[in-house]
Amino acid sequence: MDPPTRQAPPETAEDVGEQQKPWVQCTIQECSDATGECQRMESWVLRQEHMTDYKSFLDIRNFEPAGFLPGRLDSGKGMTASISCNERSVDTSLSCTECIRLIKGGPYGIRGVAVGAYPMEREVLPCLELSKPLPKYEPMSGDRYDGNSEDPRQTAFCNVISARL
């Protein structure tokens, strides 16, 4: 005689979300020095344990505490960018206007490279689930390699708001 089996309902998104660590939401605003009016805003959601990689992502984007350098967020003169980050609870209803992966370590070096998710992830959980360790890199003879000791990995960030005000 077989032992009795117990059936349970499948895990739902709420169950999965409750098991994850808290998230962080970082808001970047670019405002006029003269009027104080903000002209651009982005809001990024990430897992709390990925905060160090998010700082690397800001470095790749040339973010400085005093403002953005010309580049992706092309600012005119007299503009100052600020960033503020706050812990937030898991919210599976969020949508991504952009899902970005930061790939660091191994052949990508200590600085890394930021690339868009392909295919694009529009929902926050599938976007953030792109974060994972990558295979260990063994440089071949003749490879140009910075010799960093970081384990190769990719970390994903979800841009939930990208607006020109």
Describe what this molecule looks like in 3D.
- The protein has 165 residues and is mostly beta strands.
- It is built from 3 helices and 9 strands.
- The chain has helices at residues 13-19, 51-60, 124-128; strands spanning 23-32, 38-47, 63-64, 67-68, 79-88, 98-104, 113-116, 132-133, 153-164.
- The strands form 2 sheets. Strands 1, 2, 5, 6, 7, 8 and 9 form a 7-stranded antiparallel beta sheet that branches. It has a two-stranded antiparallel ribbon with strand order 3-4.
- The longest helix has 10 residues, at 51-60.
- Residues 65-74 have low confidence and may be disordered.
Which short descriptors sum up this protein?
165 residues, mainly beta, 7-stranded antiparallel beta sheet, two-stranded antiparallel ribbon, globular
Which class best fits the helix and strand makeup?
Answer: mainly beta
Low-pLDDT parts are 65-74
Share of β-strand residues: 35-45%
Largest sheet properties: 7 strands, antiparallel
Principal-axis shape? globular
Radius of gyration from the CA trace? 20 Å
Number of helices: 3
Mean pLDDT over all positions: 81
Secondary structure: helix percent: 10-25%
Beta strand count: 9
Helix and strand run? HEEHEEEEEHEE
End-to-end Cα distance, whole Å, is 69 Å
